[in-house]
Design goal:
transcription regulation; RNA binding; transcription antitermination; NusB_RsmB_TIM44; mainly alpha
Length: 145
């Protein structure tokens, strides 16, 4: 199942990226992504929830992200922007997923699709967003090993 969820995130970030760059209807983006044979391996419900959630909430998500980036949103790499949107959407609306998992997935997505050190930037921004939107979870003491 986790592979399906990871694949869902991979396709969702690609979908957000395409949507941001081309400004085409989200259903056209989905149609394009479905042409990839690997699409059959994803958790489609999760993919749909993430992609549609980002599209529906992009203004709110961008506002939250803008507080923690060191440049105007328009100057972010499109991959980093897509990953930050997806990760922030998950932090806000997928409370069943631990924040550490969301941050780790965002870092891995950036390593896969982004530039050389983009994952470090995404990690730093996601840490700050998580501290704001999931403060109780972030500040909860870790159980001893």
């Amino acid at each position: 199942m986790s592979g399906n969820r990871r694949k869902a995130r991979e396709f969702a970030v690609q979908g957000v990226y395409l949507w941001l760059l081309n400004q085409q209807p989200v259903n056209d983006v989905i149609k394009q992504l479905r042409e990839d044979a690997a699409y059959q391996e994803i958790d489609e419900a999760m993919f749909s929830k993430l992609l549609h959630g980002v599209v529906a909430n992009v203004a709110e998500l961008d506002l939250r992200i803008a507080h923690f980036v060191d440049r105007p949103m328009a100057e972010l790499s499109p991959v980093e922007h897509a990953v930050l949107l997806l990760g922030t959407q998950e932090l806000l609306h997928s409370l069943e997923v631990p924040y550490r998992v969301i941050i780790n997935e965002a870092v891995e997505l950036t390593k896969t699709f982004g530039g050389t050190d983009g994952h470090k930037y995404v990690n730093g921004v996601m840490d700050k967003i998580a501290a704001q939107v999931r403060s109780a979870e972030v500040n909860k003491p870790r159980a001893p090993k």
